[in-house]
Specification:
Layout: H1 20-53, H2 65-80, E1 84-88, H3 94-104, E2 109-113, H4 120-124, E3 125-137, E4 145-156, H5 158-165, E5 168-172, H6 184-190, E6 193-195, E7 205-207, E8 213-219, H7 231-234, E9 238-241, H8 247-258, H9 262-278, H10 287-300, H11 305-316, H12 323-340
Parallel strand pairs: 1-8, 1-9, 2-5, 5-8
Antiparallel strand pairs: 3-4, 6-7
The structure holds adenosine-5'-triphosphate and magnesium ion.
Length: about 350
């Protein structure tokens, strides 16, 4: 009998049944495709969240020797692994300094602004989205199969993002938040673990990334609405007390933000520094006020004594107590300007 190596029957189309090895391969490929899709989805979610919290880059940042000294100290502590708390009066440049230092660290930085209403969820995140999937199976025409799946989606806030991915967290106006909202930071700094109280099982704990850095800014204790952070936290943080910058730095900052020539920026800074000596507490005008005055004068091209007086009063009077107080301080401002120009 003649040996025929192949079955002589012709097969049309593909095989209906798969061999076990083929089946495994199909399942594996499908799983990999699903994982790829999930990864892309996660990356998109992460990008979305980062875009919301990514800190701004300070504009027209000036680096004089004085500024460099502060930045050097901040970077030293951060690189040694300690958080840094910058404390100083209103408008002296704390936030700009923190943003610049975070930039120089060369990794993404996210930020959060403290206030009375902030709580742990604002820092860590929570289940804020619920996704619902419905499958309607009509494979056999007279059999209907419905399956609804609800999945709560976790959304991370800045502290979780920073701990997870090793970012810098800038916690601006830190002492404006109530101390209990910041208890969560204790285990982050001490044990290197972030606990997410609303999660379960192994998802509940995040090991803090070794690159995680924390930068805090606060007003001095004498300001209204400032809480004293708990001692246990302060013990683990390096603190840099800053004052208003020196004249040279302030002049350069006013020039950079207003575009005024040096001589005019000097006059504004001198007036502001003089008034800083006279006015007390929260009324002391910071560098921000000097910038405001500079920008207003540059925009109107005016620099007469009257104009300077008007602009100074408007820029500073938000903290004066009312019409009579403004009238009293207007005289003071006028007198100083007359003397100086
Ligand atoms: N080194 C600098 N170079 C350029 N601009 C600066 C610099 N430092 C501070 N500024 C500017 O001075 C102004 C006040 O600075 P900043 O907002 O950082 O002060 P702050 O101390 O954080 O104030 P607040 O207490 O109100 O939060 C801002 O407009 C900022 O851009
Ligand atoms: Mg600030």
């Amino acid at each position: 009998m003649k040996y025929v190596p192949e079955h002589p029957r012709k097969v049309r189309g593909g095989a209906v049944h798969q061999a076990i090895a083929e089946k495994k391969l199909t399942i594996l490929t499908r799983q990999r495709e699903q994982e790829d899709v999930r990864e892309v989805q996660l990356a998109t979610v992460r990008e979305d969240i980062e875009a919301k919290f990514l800190s701004p880059v300070p504009k027209n940042f000036i680096e004089t020797d004085e500024v460099k000294r502060y930045i050097g100290k901040i970077l030293l502590w951060l690189k040694t692994g300690y958080p840094v708390h910058i404390i100083g009066p209103t408008g002296c440049g704390k936030t700009a300094l923190a943003l610049q230092a975070a930039n120089l660290l060369g990794k993404p930085s996210v930020w959060v602004n403290g206030d009375e209403a902030i709580n742990t969820t604002n820092l860590i995140g929570g289940y804020s989205k619920i996704e619902m999937t419905t499958i309607r199976d009509k494979f056999i025409h007279n059999v209907f199969k419905d399956k609804d799946t609800m999945e709560a989606r976790w959304v991370s806030n800045p502290l979780t993002l920073a701990c997870q991915y090793g970012y810098t967290l800038i916690y601006n106006e830190f002492s404006r938040s109530r101390p209990e909202a910041n208890n969560i930071l204790l285990s982050v700094l001490e044990e290197g673990v972030l606990e997410l109280p609303t999660k379960f099982g192994e998802d509940r704990y995040i090991k803090v990334h070794p690159d995680f850095s924390l930068l805090l800014t606060s007003n001095n204790m004498e300001y209204a609405g400032v809480h004293k952070p708990q001692d246990a936290l302060l013990d683990r943080i390096a603190t840099i007390h800053m004052d208003y910058y020196n004249r040279d730095t302030e002049v350069k900052i006013v020039q950079a933000h207003s575009g005024l020539p040096k001589a005019r920026a000097e006059k504004i800074v001198d007036v502001v520094r003089e008034l800083r000596n006279i006015l007390g507490g929260v009324e002391k005008p910071g560098t921000r006020i000097a910038i405001m005055i500079g920008q207003a004068l540059q925009a109107t091209n005016g620099f007469g004594k009257d104009y300077l007086e008007e602009v100074c009063v408007d820029a500073m009077s938000s903290k004066f107590l009312g019409f009579d107080d403004v009238a009293k301080k207007r005289l003071l401002i006028k007198e100083r300007i007359q003397k100086m120009l």
